[in-house]
Amino acid sequence: MAHRTTPEERELIKVIAHMPFDEAKRQAWSGQIEATGLNEELAEEIHTAFSTHHEGEADPAARARLLPEVARLINRWRLTQQSSKFRK
After folding, report:
1. CA 69, CA 62: separation in Å to the nearest integer?
2. Among residues 3, 39, 42, 2, which one has the least CA distance to residue 26?
3. Which residues have C-beta within 8 Å of that of residue 9, sequence separation ≥ 6?
């Protein structure tokens, strides 16, 4: 059964498409979110990849520009997940 993506996951997929990483990594992250949904391990991996400086990075300003957006989306996803569990 396919996973129904949340609005936060859809926005994160759009941001991932603009990330300054290689295409294989972006496709893997997007595919995993679409297939099984975002989980805490994947969210931490994406945030860590954005937070660390990579040698020979073509555009560090793009990474710095997108970092607050990624952090906001991950925190919003966490809040949504916690609030849905609270109601049950």
Report:
1. 11
2. 42
3. 33, 37, 38, 77
d(CA 47, CA 84): 23
Task: Tell me the CA distances in angstroms from 60 to 1, 20, 33, 67, 84, one per residue in order.
Answer: 39, 8, 25, 11, 36
Residues sharing a CB contact under 8 Å with residue 69, sequence separation 6 or more, in sequence order: 15
Please tell me whether residue 55 adopts helix, strand or coil conformation: coil
Write down the residue that tokens 């607050």 correspond to. Answer: 68
For the entire predicted model, the pTM comes to: 0.84
Q: How far apart are CA 73 and CA 41, in angstroms?
A: 15
pLDDT 10s digits, 36-82: 999 999 999 999 988 887 776 777 787 888 889 999 999 999 999 88
